[in-house]
Amino acid sequence: MSANNYLTKGTIMNETELNLKGNWNVVKGKLKQAYGDLTDDDLAYTNGKDDELVGRIQKRLGTTAGDVRKLIQKYSR
């Protein structure tokens, strides 16, 4: 079996972090198009503060942190 079959929460977050570092402006634009309620302040990203970013988006959209992480991964592709 491949290593992908054994992903942990930490592994998934690390992959999300890498995606954010490389193309956050693209992801941010896609999120703003899909969810017009999100502001630049909601989407402000600082390296190492992923949980704060997820929390702001979660609060604005009224969803779970897991759902926000899935959105970020979806738009990071």
Written account of the structure:
The protein has 77 residues and is mostly helical. The protein has a single domain (9-75), classed as Protein Yjbj, Chain: A. Helices cover 64% and strands 0% of the residues. The radius of gyration is 13 Å and the shape is globular. The chain starts with 8 loop residues before the first helix and ends with a helix. Residues 1-11 have low confidence and may be disordered.
Features:
Protein Yjbj, Chain: A; 3 helices; disordered N terminus; 77 residues; mainly alpha
Offer a concise description of the structure:
64% of the residues lie in helices and 0% in strands. It has three helices and no strands.
What is the fold's blueprint, element by element?
Elements: H1 9-34, H2 50-61, H3 65-75
Helix pairs in contact: 1-3, 2-3
Judging from the principal axes of the Cα atoms, what is the shape?
globular
What's the helix count? 3
Q: Provide the low-confidence segments as ranges.
A: 1-11
Distance, first to last CA: 24 Å
Q: Classify the secondary structure makeup into a structural class.
A: mainly alpha
Query: What percentage of residues falls in helices of 4 or more residues?
Result: 55-70%
Q: Kindly state the mean pLDDT as a whole number? A: 81
